[in-house]
Amino acid sequence: MKTTELFNDGGHCWLMLGRDADKPEKVIDTNQYVVRFNNEAVILDPGGIELFAPMLDSIVKLMPLEQVKYLFASHQDPDIISSLGLWDQVLENACLYSPWLWEGFIRHFGMERIRFMPIADPGGVLNLNGLELRFIPAHYLHSSGNFHVYDAKAKILFSGDIGAALEPVDSPMFVDDFTAHTAKMRYFHQRWMPSEQAKHDWIQRVRLLDIDMMCPQHGRIFRGEQVTQFLDWFEQLPVGQLNE
């Protein structure tokens, strides 16, 4: 599993863990993110059960495990949070922030010691030892209870499945040619995003944010003007229909 530093401002950093060449062939590739501030850390969408071992190995090489105080699950899918039962065994005094709607489902993955912190529909804030991380509503994109995470200091938006592309593990980390990359995103977004209204609500909300980097849970990361390019492209893309 590769670790890529996305942002570092002294005690404040963003890391992406992914591109795991040793994962099972038919398991889709996922991006896991770690945000650390003043020696506390949160793992955003920590991944499926099959990725727990390489994730744990990577984390302990980066920081003492005791610094991981929080987990965040954008929604209930297994590629996002089915590793929960294993994290529950190794983390002490940790909390999981996730949509209130999915608590009863997420607990099926196993959660005895980790405390569930429900996020209300309008969103909320995680105070990471002095750093404010905002939970941005992204309902029905694609899950009916869904959130993204925005860091105003780093100007980074973790965008979950929005912006996703399913690509091989040896793909580049960052988008280079945006126009060419749209071909890798189109089917995913049209098939998995069910609501035009939800799409436009999200775009309107996100255009108000100052974003240098948009980081999806699958595929490549968008930087600079590519963020606006993505919003423009997504805005005109018809979703919620089956194109055969």
Automatic annotation (TrEMBL):
Superkingdom of this protein's organism: Bacteria
SUPFAM superfamilies xref list: Metallo-hydrolase/oxidoreductase
Signal peptide (from-to): none
Gene3D superfamilies (alphabetical): Ribonuclease Z/Hydroxyacylglutathione hydrolase-like
A Pfam family: ODP
Organism expressing this protein natively: Rheinheimera baltica
Name of the protein: MBL fold metallo-hydrolase
Boundaries of every Metallo-beta-lactamase domain copy: 29-218
InterPro entries in alphabetical order: Metallo-B-lactamas (IPR001279), ODP_dom (IPR045761), RibonucZ/Hydroxyglut_hydro (IPR036866)
Transmembrane regions listed in the UniProt entry: none
